[in-house]
Each structure stands twice: as C-alpha cells, then as structure tokens.
C-alpha cells in the first residue's frame, strides 16, 4: 500500500511539474498592435475585389426581372487581393496585401463570413502574415474578427482585428481601417 501511495504522489508531482513548465517555460509573449488601411476596389480598370459567385444568379432562371438592386446578395462569394497601406490615401506607403474571400451569409443586411490573410511586404514584419476569420456586418460601426494564426514573426499568433469603414461604398468599394492586436 505504501508503494501505491508513493507512486500516486510521485505521479501527481510529475503531472503538476509538467503543467507548470508548459505554462511557464520562460518564453515571453509579445503584444503587437498593427494599424493600416485596406483599399477595396470593385470597379475600375483594375478591381482588387470581385464577386465570383452571385447568390441571386443561382436562383434566377433568366425570366425574372425582379432581381434585387443591392450590389451584394445572400450567397455571393467575393474574392479579394487588396493593398494595405500606412495611411488612407491610395498613394500612401504600401505595407502588404489582404488576400482572401468572403461569403455573404445573411438574408438581411450585408453580413459576410470572412477568411483573410494579411501578407506583410514592408518594414520590420516583412515576410510575415496574419490570418483572420470572422463575421463582418457592414451595418456595424466597428467589426471584430479573431486572429487564427500567422507566419514568420507572427507564428502561433492569437488576438483580434477591428475594422471600420473609413470611406466605403458597397457598390464600388473604398477604404477600410484595420487595427490588429496580436499576442505571439
């Protein structure tokens, strides 16, 4: 019986030590705040965001003249490859690209399920990326998405992204302000 008690106490000690070392392994966590602007263009000679599937057209038999007039519909799939810049002006210094897709998931309002990779091309974070996933409600003043990971300096990143329209139209696109709060 004494052997079993000793084994149980020893096992408990080893388990506690393993948990402690896992959570306190001496590695420090860094917090980083990134701020930039995304330029989203649906029109013009070189659009950077494009609807590749129209949810309405999947239901349209070609004989219905009552198709909705909204530029975005439930079921739409939009792909994007947008510039990220330091400032809101298109001529501002470029820091990277926002690449991904959004699926319109609500029958009421413009709400999308967004999957986006922000690939950083300049400065101290050059070669790194951050991946976000989230529900984007275009009627909300601010929208929050979760950071699901990253590469390079942001490997194993976690955190959140806050976006808000800077100068934006659903019909043509525009500028979206982005704040990323990362722990890595």
From TrEMBL:
<comment type="function">
    <text>Dirigent proteins impart stereoselectivity on the phenoxy radical-coupling reaction, yielding optically active lignans from two molecules of coniferyl alcohol in the biosynthesis of lignans, flavonolignans, and alkaloids and thus plays a central role in plant secondary metabolism.</text>
</comment>
<dbReference type="GO" id="GO:0048046">
    <property type="term" value="C:apoplast"/>
</dbReference>
<keyword id="KW-0964">Secreted</keyword>
<feature type="signal peptide">
    <location>
        <begin position="1"/>
        <end position="18"/>
    </location>
</feature>
<dbReference type="InterPro" id="IPR004265">
    <property type="entry name" value="Dirigent"/>
</dbReference>
<keyword id="KW-0732">Signal</keyword>
<dbReference type="InterPro" id="IPR044859">
    <property type="entry name" value="Allene_oxi_cyc_Dirigent"/>
</dbReference>
<keyword id="KW-0052">Apoplast</keyword>
<comment type="similarity">
    <text>Belongs to the plant dirigent protein family.</text>
</comment>
<dbReference type="GO" id="GO:0009699">
    <property type="term" value="P:phenylpropanoid biosynthetic process"/>
</dbReference>
<protein>
    <recommendedName>
        <fullName>Dirigent protein</fullName>
    </recommendedName>
</protein>
<comment type="subunit">
    <text>Homodimer.</text>
</comment>
<dbReference type="Pfam" id="PF03018">
    <property type="entry name" value="Dirigent"/>
</dbReference>
